[in-house]
Write a structure and sequence with these properties.
Strand 8 and strand 9 form a beta hairpin. It is built from three helices and ten strands; from the N terminus they run αββαββββββββα. With about 240 residues, it is of the alpha+beta class. The chain has an eight-stranded antiparallel β-barrel with strand order 2-3-4-6-7-8-9-10.
Amino acid sequence: MSFNIQKGAKDMKKIIFVSFIFLITFQFCRENSAGDASSKSQNVSEISENAKKKIEILNISDKRLVGFYGLSGTEWHEIVAMESKYPYLKLAHANAEMNGKDKALFFKFYNYKEDYPEIYRIDFKEAENEAEYYAEYNGKRIYKVLFVSQFRGGTSSHIYVKFFKIDEMKLAPDLFDGLVARASKIGDPYPIHVKTYKTLIDVEMDDRIGACFEEPSPEGREWPNCKPPGYNNLK
């Protein structure tokens, strides 16, 4: 009888000890978990804030907007094509320029082995919301626009002209859509390339020369030696 009581007491002490260790461990884990959650929340917040710092909305008079742009295929290619004598313009490549004098984007289309000499123009007018603009073609509003300085990897920012649908209420400046500014330094890995960008013709020629060198067969090239006849801004 005495033996059973002593054994029961020992078992009770073990249970109490194990329970005590369990409570300490549970409390420790809970505090660590809360700390991790707080840390994760803080990290997400920091990432969000850092992302915001990497985006700057620009005014149309900002000198950083001056330069040449490469245009991706967008709906307004078709808008221009409808009013043009070139029916296949909507399938063409295009480059653009903002010169700092006009609140406008001047652009020119081209295709491989084809040239469209006309220069087109999109004007920018201030919209109701601050820093937003309307893009107008021949006096008709066709898009809303944001001018954005944005990091996209590396240590330097890129300049974008971002187009949005005309009925879009809230414009998202962090989207990587729109027109991408070309690099000011020219360094194509080809034996011949354009020396400096002074006009839209220079930008177009640089693109066409690059496409020419991508064609291995001289017979299939726009020019057999990839040197445009009569064009001398080369090195």
